[in-house]
């Protein structure tokens, strides 16, 4: 028999895991920004990379963080709702 629905504890754990990824992505942004700033590299290739990093890449990572935050919050809220309906809360 297949299950339809979700295990509230697993759903809450998924939500927390998604939200925890935000700090990992912020770490990537910080690390790359720091290393790039400290790298001796002049010329059009650096200018192009730095421009793409500061616009396209960082914006994409920011949107990923927003998506993880929203999805994580949704999982946690659904878990809470399930637990309430099931009488666990």
Would you spell out the secondary-structure blueprint of this structure?
Layout: H1 8-37, H2 44-85
Helix pairs in contact: 1-2
Describe the protein:
- By secondary structure, the chain is mainly alpha-helical.
- The chain has a single domain (8-85), classed as Helix Hairpins, CATH 1.10.287.
- The chain contains 2 helices and no strands.
Brief description of this entry?
The protein has 89 residues and is mainly α. Helices cover 81% and strands 0% of the residues.
Number of domains: 1
Cα-atom radius of gyration: 20 Å
- Amount of beta strand: under 5%
Query: Which word captures the global form?
Result: rod-shaped
Give the helix/strand class: mainly alpha
Order of helices and strands: HH
In the CATH classification, which architecture applies? Answer: Orthogonal Bundle
Per CATH, the class reads Mainly Alpha
Q: Give the total of beta strands.
A: 0
Biggest β-sheet strands, sense, barrel: none
Mean pLDDT: 94
Q: Counting H and I runs of at least 4 residues, what is the number of helices?
A: 2
- What are the segments in which pLDDT stays under 50 over at least 5 consecutive residues? none
- Please give the share of residues in helix: over 70%
CATH topological fold name: Helix Hairpins
């Amino acid at each position: 028999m297949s299950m339809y629905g979700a295990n509230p504890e697993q759903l809450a754990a998924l939500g927390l895991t998604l939200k925890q990824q935000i700090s990992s992505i912020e770490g990537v942004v910080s690390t790359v920004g720091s290393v790039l700033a400290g790298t001796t590299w002049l010329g059009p290739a650096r200018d192009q990379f730095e421009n793409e990093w500061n616009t396209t890449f960082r914006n994409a990572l920011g949107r990923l963080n927003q998506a993880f935050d929203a999805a994580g919050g949704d999982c946690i809220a659904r878990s809470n709702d399930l637990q309430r309906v099931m009488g666990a809360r």
